[in-house]
Amino acid sequence: MMELKSSTTFRVRFNEVDSMNITWHGHYVTFFEDAREAFGREYDIDYLTIHREGYYAPLVDIHVEYKSPLIYGDEARIEITYKDCDAAKIIFEYKIFNLRDGKLAAKGSTTQVFMDKDYRLVLYPPDFFIKWKIKNGLREE
Amino acid sequence: MMELKSSTTFRVRFNEVDSMNITWHGHYVTFFEDAREAFGREYDIDYLTIHREGYYAPLVDIHVEYKSPLIYGDEARIEITYKDCDAAKIIFEYKIFNLRDGKLAAKGSTTQVFMDKDYRLVLYPPDFFIKWKIKNGLREE
Amino acid sequence: MMELKSSTTFRVRFNEVDSMNITWHGHYVTFFEDAREAFGREYDIDYLTIHREGYYAPLVDIHVEYKSPLIYGDEARIEITYKDCDAAKIIFEYKIFNLRDGKLAAKGSTTQVFMDKDYRLVLYPPDFFIKWKIKNGLREE
Amino acid sequence: MMELKSSTTFRVRFNEVDSMNITWHGHYVTFFEDAREAFGREYDIDYLTIHREGYYAPLVDIHVEYKSPLIYGDEARIEITYKDCDAAKIIFEYKIFNLRDGKLAAKGSTTQVFMDKDYRLVLYPPDFFIKWKIKNGLREE
Predict the structure, then answer these.
(1) D66 pLDDT more than 70
(2) Least packed by Cβ within 10 Å: which of B3, B10, C40, D60?
């Protein structure tokens, strides 16, 4: 399967840890979104670009597996991988590594669909998305 | 000064406490907004009503003083008081009491202004707001 | 499979919707936690009880499927179902229904494990958890 | 008055804007905390250092004035200034500038006090804090 990859680093904030001093599980959703936005800016497929093309790309599915806790002050690297498919979907996989000990902290995936400006589900990949795939070597012209 | 009051209760969530087991200070902004929304529903001045009238009411000022910590599981009562003034402003004061010990947990205030749909500041109180004041006995017809 | 159920309602807050006016997907993790805490208070298995027994119960897995958007001001009912299993795990399933139109807004699941106070994974169900199951008719004495 | 300054930049996240496409006011509390943590790492007065010295430094006061909205995708620079005083307090002032147009987006201040490990208020500046002031030229030996 064709893939595109990106990665970014972040530091766990004071307000992200819970009373056990470990990162509250809900914040990983934000870490994933930060990675997705960094990927989008790197590959020209960010929310603003999608919006300018006349679409929204809401999440329809998220899955997170927590492997090893991140504590306050930890630095982490998040790797995001775009998994190409034929459907009108954007599928990403994520891995978060704790830079303190090299351990896998969490992994997961998200699936997004396309909606037009009237909030109707789009069944076929939009033209701009096909062009984006071609430009990034995921599909032949 | 003419006032209108409302109050509501809430319970501190697990994800709202920090590693010291006390409520992270940033969440009080949400507690204030919850109180403001409850007030808005009670007195017909909620965000959706304001929006239907053609206005936004963004915050331009918030002040919070923290007096005594709320810990996980605490129930609290938040009192919100509308402080009437002649300007095109909505001013609220807030007090949060810990129901476990009766102590004042925090107090504060917010100021909102009116903007029209083009995001321009509105210098005079909108008609719907004047009518709202009359209806609530804050102003004579 | 033996099950225990609980349900609670909530209203979508202004700060929970995004620029498309629909509830940001990350907040569903909080909705799930709110349901879990309400379940815990109803069935005496809340975080504080678990903690008093000498354990933590961190999440190791969360899955959310988004079916239909919740918009600002919507009221919703969240149903939480405890799915009993023999392992040292707490598994919940969730369904969120939009009370405006009765539609399923989202569904999902979480898995929690037990850790002792030294943050070591507990491989067998703790005594207090076995007693809790018996008390709730999930297991014979 | 003696001052120490630091600054950092950030980008407004998708999940930080509201339905008006402007940054929800509550997130500025996090922006302030991010700046405070960056300052702390730069000047060796971060939460972990304070904690190792046997103290907490909870906020007792926050004030934010909103001047001009930050929208999704905007980059901003936050300037944080430590304002020295004789009391056992840590006072910071903040200014956030929108890098898109150079405008002042918001300004504000926070006050922190010291508590010992038993959560008792500390009335005199702790030794490590006095040494920190001397090291940073805020006080003579």
Answers:
(1) yes
(2) B3
Contacts of B19 in chain A (CB under 8 A): 14, 17-21, 72
- Sign of the CA dihedral A24, A20, C33, C72? negative
Report CA-CA distances (Å) from D46 to D37, D50, D128. Answer: 6, 6, 13
Q: Which two tokens stand for residue D21?
A: 């496409």
CB atoms within 10 A of CB B40: 20
**pLDDT score of D140:** 85
- Are the CB atoms for A109 and A59 separated by under 8 Å? no
Which whole number is the average pLDDT over D99-115?
97
Half-sphere exposure of D125 (CA within 13 A, CB side): 17
Instruction: Tell me whether strands D55-56 and A75-83 are parallel, antiparallel or unpaired.
Output: unpaired
The residues near A68 (Cβ < 8 Å, ≥ 6 apart) are A98, A101, A103, A104, A105, A106
Does residue C20 sit at the A interface (CB-CB below 8 Å)?
Answer: yes
- What three-state secondary structure class fits B97? strand
CA D117, CA D54: separation in Å to the nearest integer? 6
CA distance D28 to D94: 10
Which residues have C-beta within 8 Å of that of residue D132, sequence separation ≥ 6? D43, D44, D45
Q: Which amino acid is at A36?
A: R
Specify the amino acid at residue D34.
D
**CA nearest neighbour of B9 among B72, B69, B95, B76:** B76
| pTM, rounded to two decimals | 0.94
Measured distance CA(C97)–CA(C78) in Å, rounded: 6
Please list, residue by residue across D1-17, b when 16 or more beta carbons sit within 10 angstroms of its beta carbon and e when fewer do.
eeebebebebbbebbbb
Residue spans of beta strands (DSSP E) within D67-124 = 75-83, 89-98, 104-113, 115-116
Q: How far is CA A105 from CA A67, A100, C59, D77, D131, in A?
A: 5, 11, 13, 30, 37
Residue type, position B25, single letter: H
| Token representation of residue D3 | 């001052």
Distance from CA of B16 to the nearest CA of A (A): 8
Residues of chain D neighbouring C20 (CB-CB closer than 8 A): 19
% residues pLDDT > 90 (chain B): 90
Helices and strands per DSSP (H, E), number in chain B: 3, 7
* Chain A: closest CA distance from residue B62 (Å): 20
What's phi and psi for D76, nearest 5 deg?
-140, 155
**DSSP β-bridge partners for residue D10:** D76
Residues B33-47 pLDDT 10s: 999 999 999 999 998
Strand duo B75-83 + B89-98: pairing: antiparallel
Decide if D18 touches C, using CB distance below 8 A.
Answer: yes
Q: Please report the ipTM that was assigned to this predicted complex.
A: 0.95
**Which of chain C's residues have a Cβ under 8 Å away from the Cβ of D19?**
14, 17-21, 72
Q: Among all residues of chain B, which has the CA nearest to that of D119? A: B20
- Collapse the DSSP code of B35 into the 3-class scheme (helix H, G, I; strand E, B; otherwise coil) and give the result: helix
Location of structure tokens 């139109």? C101
